[in-house]
Design goal:
By secondary structure, this protein is α+β, with helices and mostly antiparallel strands. It has one domain. The protein is 38% helix and 11% strand. The chain contains 2 helices and 2 strands. Strands 1-2 form a two-stranded antiparallel sheet. A hairpin with a 2-residue loop joins strand 1 and strand 2. The chain starts with 6 loop residues before the first strand and ends with a helix.
Length: 71
Amino acid sequence: MTQTIEAIYEQGVFKPLQPVELAEHRKVVLTVETSGEESDADAELLQLLDEPFELGAKEPLNRRAIYDETR
């Protein structure tokens, strides 16, 4: 049987947003697809990580690189 169930992931546990027709302790296989809201956040994060390269950086910034630039 295949069901598509929306859930929230909290403290290491998937919590369904609607009732699930399964026997207690039934083993299942989950395929996780994040909602569009989270995908937008991921895209924004990736864009922020790419900005230093768009500004001419040759390698990712790290604490040491930032420290060296301020000296």
